[in-house]
């Protein structure tokens, strides 16, 4: 039976599996092993991250107010404007994506708009346009589209609809730089203007 204080670690060799230490290995380990799940839980207590597994299929609009990791299939629109969106290695996304930071490990077909950064990691794939002030594309990734690295904040579709752009006609005044009249007499040379 497993005890909470007891540390379970896998054998490093066949000898250890049979209860015999490997040659040259100390009889008692000098440092206790650490449970990885405990470290993960302590490191992530202050941050909410929601995971969508690889068997989940979403068709439609996905909105949220916390960080999200998607490993499944999403078709439609993903909107996490103030949070981090991670597209997992098994994910297949056919959507317009809006996020603060987008980290791509899987496949995205559609445009990505991020207010801070888009990061296409090794084996990540994006077929679509990217709008973000910072873009990182790792060696071994796939990208087909255009990149607009604008420095101003990204406007929401509602803000764009509210602000009607009206063309304004401004009369243009054209002035040409005309050199002053120069008189030449005798052996004087004219120096170009």
Shape verdict: globular
Give the CA-CA distance, first to last residue: 97 Å
Order of helices and strands: HHEEEEEEEEEEEEH
DSSP strand (E) fraction?
Answer: 35-45%
Largest sheet: 12 strands, parallel
Radius of gyration from the CA trace? 31 Å
Helix content: under 10%
| Helix and strand composition category | mainly beta
Number of strands: 12
Low-pLDDT stretches are: 13-18, 25-46, 173-186
Query: How confident overall, as mean pLDDT?
Result: 74
Question: Number of helix segments?
Answer: 3
- This entry's quaternary arrangement is single chain
Describe the structure in brief.
This protein is mainly β. The protein has helices at about 15, 35-45, 155-160, and strands at about 50, 55-65, 65-70, 75-85, 90-105, 105-110, 110-120, 125, 130, 135, 140-145, 145-150. It has a domain at about 45-145.
Question: How does this model look, in words?
Answer:
With 193 residues, this protein is mainly beta. The chain has a domain at 46-144. The chain is 9% helix and 35% strand. It has helices at 14-17, 36-43, 157-162, and strands at 49-52, 57-63, 67-70, 73-87, 92-104, 107-109, 112-120, 125-127, 130-131, 135-137, 142-144, 147-148. Strands 1, 2, 3, 4, 5, 6, 7, 8, 9, 10, 11 and 12 form a twelve-stranded parallel β-sheet that branches. Mean pLDDT is 74; it is low at 13-18, 25-46 and 173-186.
